[in-house]
Design the sequence.
């Protein structure tokens, strides 16, 4: 036996997990890969299984499945991470969907998976992987530090939008039914077994609306959404992404991009804003500061004027806010703030 001390098993598993998840990213982004979704899901599930087992072994927990030397499956390993508080239930739900799709791809033919669903699961699968890595193995923080370019040339929405469309079609389309079943069984995994297609169908049988009776419906309402697209900024345009809060009944919204012409949307310089209000520049600048309008894109937008300087421009909404304060009952005085 070699005198050289072998690395601990959980560290060897960790190294393999990182290698697997990076290769899964490579598989998905290859221009030519006729087995793209399947190979990506297989490798990402492999990565999560190895990471989960690494965390469990580090915590002195057994990963044995039986006395014959077999170890627990990927879905069981990830399920146990919730009990170890290494993953939240919401995070585990995302990873379990990846594993469910992978199991179908490994043991049969994978039903077509919309780009939005793949992008969502892979983005958060990688994000949560990195979070677990940093939390459980802080001394290995230099692993997974590369940035990767994602190029999308077609129109896309979000996971929530595509899943809702599949739910609407699942009574008429076998592919859509199979997709929802695979996602549903991942979220519903109880640590021992998957639910069947008949069990999924029983959840909404006889119901007018399907989504409220599925676990994937709860997932849509509570999970963050992602849309991965390039944002082109032509000359003299800035690229701003605005997040807006949805209604209480539906927190998931598609991402909307709006091109902004700075001079049209922010027509006033500080002095010009003051002139329109009948105030001098000093009063206007003080009022803007007192009302914390600078930095709020509803009212303000800085434009670079050199290597260090900026010109500050203000919107009609900024004028309306100041005009309202001036004419309000409180007799607004920015110098008293």
Sequence:
């Amino acid at each position: 036996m070699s005198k050289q001390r072998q690395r601990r098993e959980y560290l060897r598993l960790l190294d393999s997990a990182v290698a697997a998840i990076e290769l899964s990213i490579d598989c998905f982004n290859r221009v030519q890969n006729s087995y793209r979704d399947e190979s990506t899901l297989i490798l990402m599930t492999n990565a999560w299984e190895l990471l989960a087992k690494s965390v469990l072994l580090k915590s002195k927990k057994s990963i044995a499945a039986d006395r014959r030397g077999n170890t627990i499956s990927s879905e069981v390993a990830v399920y146990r991470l919730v009990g170890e508080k290494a993953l939240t239930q919401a995070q585990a739900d995302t990873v379990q969907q990846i594993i469910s799709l992978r199991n179908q791809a490994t043991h049969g033919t994978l039903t077509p998976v919309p780009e939005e669903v793949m992008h969502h699961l892979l983005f958060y699968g990688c994000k949560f992987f990195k979070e677990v890595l940093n939390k459980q193995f802080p001394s290995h923080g230099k692993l997974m530090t590369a940035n990767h370019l994602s190029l999308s040339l077609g129109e896309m929405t979000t996971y929530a939008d595509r899943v809702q469309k599949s739910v609407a079609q699942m009574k008429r389309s076998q592919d859509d039914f199979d997709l929802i079943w695979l996602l549903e069984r991942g979220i519903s995994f109880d640590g021992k077994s998957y639910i069947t297609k008949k069990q999924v169908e029983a959840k909404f049988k006889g119901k007018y609306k399907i989504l409220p009776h599925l676990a994937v419906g709860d997932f849509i309402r509570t999970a963050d959404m992602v849309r991965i697209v390039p944002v082109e900024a032509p000359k003299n345009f800035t690229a701003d992404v605005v997040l807006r809060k949805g209604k209480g009944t539906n927190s998931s919204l598609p991402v909307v991009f709006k091109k902004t012409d700075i001079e049209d949307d922010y027509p006033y310089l500080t002095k010009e804003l003051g002139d329109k209000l009948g105030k001098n520049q000093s009063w206007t600048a003080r009022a803007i500061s007192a009302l914390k309008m600078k930095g709020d894109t509803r009212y303000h937008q800085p434009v670079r004027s050199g290597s260090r300087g900026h010109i500050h421009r203000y919107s009609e909404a900024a004028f309306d806010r100041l005009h309202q304060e001036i004419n309000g009952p409180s007799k607004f005085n920015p110098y008293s703030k």
Q: What stands out?
A: Residues 1-6 have pLDDT under 50 and may be disordered.
